[in-house]
């Protein structure tokens, strides 16, 4: 029984995906970008606000309820407000940050990440196997 519990514990620990470490925050030319996000038929809105040393990420459902709200700084991800921590959103946002900055990618992503750019949209497969379709919204 102890061996089984040990195996289950190790399996669950190894199944957790670790967030990639940030290398740098490249400067941005725009102050805000908005995206339509789709995953398994579910749609949401993602807004990124760019400041000098931080990027604020807000993901909401179609009714405006927050799904994730975090800030990316040179020190990594920080929760913003009272929204429950959303690890999968941080993974998605890390991939989006790399797609938005192909020449100065903020994160070093390994081979488990899949980023496919078909302008005006891009597709992301995260290490957990979830697949996302992202389309930038025009102002």
- Strand % is 35-45%
Overall mean pLDDT score?
89
| Cα shape | globular
Report the uncertain regions.
7-15
- Name the quaternary structure: single chain
Terminal Cα span: 59 Å
- Quick one: biggest sheet? 8 strands, antiparallel
Q: Give the helices and strands as they follow along the chain.
A: HEEEEEHEEE
Rg over CA atoms, rounded to whole Å, is: 16 Å
Q: Count helical runs.
A: 2
Strand order of the largest sheet: 5-4-3-2-1-8-7-6
Instruction: Let me know the number of strands.
Output: 8
User: What structural category do the secondary elements indicate?
Assistant: alpha+beta
Describe the fold and architecture.
With 139 residues, the protein is an alpha+beta fold. The chain is 20% helix and 37% strand. The protein contains 2 helices and 8 strands. It has helices at residues 2-15, 87-100, and strands spanning 32-39, 42-50, 55-60, 66-73, 76-79, 114-118, 121-125, 131-137. The chain has an 8-stranded antiparallel beta sheet, with helices on one face. Strand 6 (114-118) and strand 7 (121-125) form a beta hairpin. The longest helix is centred in the first third of the chain and has 14 residues, at 2-15. It is globular and about 45 Å long. The termini are far apart.
